[in-house]
Design a protein that fits this description.
399 residues; Rossmann fold; two-stranded antiparallel sheet; 10 strands; 11% strand; globular; binds thiamine diphosphate; binds magnesium ion
């Protein structure tokens, strides 16, 4: 065993504002959580088990953990918020308030919530275009994410990035990338910077099962291995790359976590926030000691690939509803809370109502907030007058 039970307790922070996610913004750049335990309250706690992780060239921790009521309530609330936000984005898109690309994250919420429960804002994060919920977790609000989607000045990037390009570098979030797999070497670069500056932190570079087949990922893993970078290559295996299932696209079959080949791998139930939290806490400690790790999150997306994909031509409605019934990440936390007697059905309903109201208010603002002005069209647009060789017959082109 390479060390178990690495669970960061939340620190006590008082007198500072909370954002919608219940995280404290900008305090020493850390995603500090205000939980009851940290505030000295008598918070009930219990032991939970989860689907065992699978390890490749490494040991994995036992599939059990301790979690308290405030932890679970916080994860439950955040996942509800994410789900409701994405459903609202779907409606806004269909009403043409959002234009262009839009990739929703519902179904996969436990990956981001569990991951950030084990990390801090000093741990750097970069991901693909399916990035709304990462933005929310790294200091965004439902309002700032939805307003970005509708192109308003109140959006995370002042309405200039849109669905695929949200960032919060002040919180260690290097955002969404539209080019499949492009973030994988960039994530290795972030890990290089952490190592170069001797920081006790890691970088996580998230990508999909489709991107996992790319050459640039293999190159990034190779360099990360040689330089022993504190990098987690985190594959969100949601079973499809656009309309292509993993069984049709991946020569190695289903075991993505073994695909780092010469670096260790760990497979985690990505539909269970506690499994993700525990896996990530262990993984962080592991990569700081041993170098890069390939993680596979076994997850599922409910929506189609993007808004132009109804999502039911290459898979059956039954497949989707079976996963919803048996593995839904929100239901899993909800039933744990109810089974422990930490929440009643009425309290759950009240919380769901509260989140719906919060998101509905954000939707209203996202529809009415001001759009960027034409005079700002070229703000942050850079033109370098550097000559590019070989672009015509007179500037260095050699046939
Ligand atoms: C280099 C490149 N090739 C193709 C595309 C078009 N494209 C966008 S998403 C996608 C599928 C990626 O699937 P996966 O990596 O599994 O991520 P998921 O969408 O499931 O999160 C493709 C082929 C692209 N954006 N960039
Ligand atoms: Mg995929």
């Amino acid at each position: 065993m390479l060390g178990i039970g690495v669970w960061r307790r939340a620190r006590v922070v008082r007198g500072v504002g909370l954002n919608a996610g219940g995280y404290v913004r900008g305090v020493a750049g850390t995603a500090m959580r205000l939980d009851g335990a940290a505030q000295g309250g008598d918070v009930p706690s219990s032991k939970f088990t989860f689907t065992p992780h699978q390890g490749y060239m490494m040991d994995v921790p036992a599939p059990e953990c301790e979690a308290n009521k405030e932890d679970l309530l916080q994860y439950f609330t955040m996942m509800l918020r994410m789900r409701r936000m994405e459903i609202s984005a779907d409606v806004l898109y269909k009403g043409q308030a959002i234009r262009g690309f839009c990739h929703l994250y519902d179904g996969q919420e436990a990956v981001v919530v569990g991951m950030d429960a084990a990390l801090t804002y000093q741990d750097l994060l970069i991901t693909s275009y399916r990035n709304h919920c990462q933005a929310l977790s790294r200091g965004g609000t439902v309002h700032s994410v939805l307003a970005e989607l509708t192109g308003r000045t109140t959006g995370m990037q002042k309405g200039r990035g849109g669905s695929m390009h949200m960032y919060a570098t002040e919180n260690g979030y290097f955002g969404g990338q539209g080019i499949v797999g492009a973030q994988t070497p960039l994530g290795a670069g972030l890990a290089f910077a952490l190592k170069y500056y001797e920081k006790p932190n890691i970088a996580v570079t998230m990508f999909g099962d489709g991107a996992a087949n790319q050459g640039q990922l293999a190159e990034a893993i190779n360099m990360a291995s040689l330089w022993k970078l504190p990098c987690i290559f985190l594959c969100e295996n949601n079973k499809y790359g656009m309309g292509t299932s993993t069984s049709r696209a991946s020569g190695s079959g289903a075991d993505f976590y073994k695909r780092g080949s010469f670096i260790p791998g760990m497979k985690v139930d990505g539909m269970d926030v506690l499994a993700v939290r525990e896996g990530m806490a262990y993984a962080k400690k592991f990569v700081l000691e041993h170098g890069p790790l390939y993680m596979e999150m076994d997850t599922y997306r409910y929506h189609g690939h993007s808004m132009s994909d109804p999502g039911i031509t290459y898979r059956s409605r039954d497949e989707i509803s079976d996963i919803r019934k048996s593995r839904d990440p929100i239901d899993r936390v909800k039933s744990r809370m109810i089974d422990e007697g930490w929440m009643g059905v009425e309290e759950v309903k009240a919380l769901e109502k509260k989140i719906k109201k919060e998101v509905d208010e954000a939707v209203k603002l996202a529809k009415t907030d001001p759009e960027p002005e034409v005079k700002d069209m070229y703000t942050n647009v850079y033109v370098e007058k550097a000559p590019i060789r070989g672009t015509n017959a007179y500037n260095g082109y050699i046939p």
